[in-house]
Design goal:
The structure is a single chain. The longest helix is centred in the first third of the chain and has 35 residues. The protein is mainly alpha-helical. The chain is globular, with a radius of gyration of 18 Å. The chain contains eight helices and no strands.
Length: 199
């Protein structure tokens, strides 16, 4: 029971930190795109490719979790977000739109991993606590509703010559914290279902 509670708490905090980075990116990506793109009509290409990456990698991430376990993939996802934020920070510093696209793709892969936090919580508690575990993990996203906009608000002009650079550096730091928290998670490898699917 104590392990179940600890895992649920870790996943709830991880959800909050992951969604904070997602919110920071959602708030700023169009603005950064406008600065870096050769034409303003290209500004949302990185965000579009980010969502496309989520859609394309959800199933492969799920299969990899079945093979290697959830913890390794969660750690890879957090590291992908960290690297993605740093790549975007470099893109802002060097004014490279192509690098901004790469960073956005890495964030998309991270978000695909993040989608499984609630399922991991549900898989590792007793049946009677499944709905509560899912609710607690999703409630972690409430942190992001406050933290994401506030980080964006106070950090975007920290380096006046490189608008939004500090914002993505803070987002990268958040993902390092997320990685360190996820190290302590102890969840079982998902067991493939052998039930016959309903028609």
């Amino acid at each position: 029971m104590e392990l179940e509670k600890r895992n649920t708490l870790i996943l709830s905090i991880a959800q909050g930190l992951s969604v904070t980075t997602t919110n920071i990116n959602m708030i700023n990506t169009g603005l950064v795109g406008t600065i870096l793109a050769t034409h303003s009509s290209y500004a949302t290409i990185p965000l579009s490719l980010q969502f496309l990456t989520i859609a394309l990698t959800l199933i492969p991430v799920s299969l990899l979790m079945g093979k290697f376990g959830r913890r390794p993939m969660f750690l890879i996802g957090a590291m992908s977000a960290f690297v993605g934020c740093l790549v975007i920070a470099f893109a802002i510093y060097y004014k490279l739109f192509s690098l901004f696209i790469l960073g956005s793709i890495l964030l998309g892969f991270s978000q695909a991993n993040q989608q499984f936090y609630r399922y991991a919580a549900a898989d590792n508690v007793s049946i009677s606590l499944k709905s509560k575990a899912i609710s607690l993990v999703l409630a972690g996203g409430l942190i992001a509703a406050i933290l994401g906009p506030e980080v964006s608000r106070y950090s975007f002009d920290f380096f006046p010559d490189y608008i939004y650079l500090a914002t993505y550096l803070f987002a990268a730091i958040i993902q390092i914290i997320n990685f360190l928290i996820l190290i302590f998670i102890n969840i079982k490898k998902p067991i493939p279902s052998k039930k016959i699917n309903r028609p």
